[in-house]
Design brief:
By secondary structure, the protein is mainly α. It has 9 helices and no strands. The protein has one domain.
């Protein structure tokens, strides 16, 4: 990952990962965004904006997957979270809390693709989905980039030396969040 951060294609890779993470890729773009903002602090806002735009575009793909492929993909995801056969209850939840659900999940390490696909499967309002996605992803990526550009030089050597530990901790957080979501939803 650190080699990719330093490569001439780093920004394009960040955009591709941001797009893919919102619809099908397992690793969050924060793993690249933070080190990139620390390495080139003057570009932190540009990186965060590109990450946000790509993530929103990927979120639209995830929404489309849930909306158009509900029978083959959406039902499996809904069943995974314990809502198999309870689609109407989930639709009612989304009708009342959908925007807040999208906003809160977009800030957490829970893979955003789950939110985007379920939002499409529930046929949640596309304009509301889009606004909530822009706000939550923008807030998250601008916060990560700002923190790393501000404090990156102090924390980058620690992260680089302990990248394996950072990736394991991130994976454990994602898995823990998925398990928690499975039991809380």
């Amino acid at each position: 990952m650190m080699d990719l951060v330093r490569s001439p294609n780093a920004e394009r890779s960040l955009i591709a990962i941001s797009f893919a993470e919102s619809s099908f890729f397992p690793l969050p773009p924060d793993l690249m965004l933070g080190p990139m903002a620390a390495a080139e602090p003057s570009k932190w806002a540009r990186y965060a904006l590109n990450c946000t735009i790509a993530s929103v575009a990927g979120g639209l793909l995830g929404y489309a997957i849930g909306y158009f492929l509900f029978e083959s993909v959406g039902q499996a995801i809904i069943s995974f979270f314990g809502y198999g056969g309870k689609e109407e209850a989930l639709r009612a939840f989304y009708a009342q809390w959908g925007a807040w659900f999208i906003f809160m999940k977009g800030l957490t390490p829970i893979p955003f693709k789950l939110v985007t696909i379920v939002s499409g499967a529930m046929q949640f309002s596309l304009p509301v989905f889009l606004v909530a996605t822009i706000l939550t992803r923008g807030l998250r990526f601008f916060a990560v980039a700002f923190i790393f550009q501000k404090f990156g030089p102090q924390i980058a050597p620690v992260i680089e030396k302990r990248m394996g530990l950072v990736l394991i901790a991130t994976a454990v957080a994602i898995i823990g969040a998925l398990v928690a979501a499975h039991y809380l939803l």
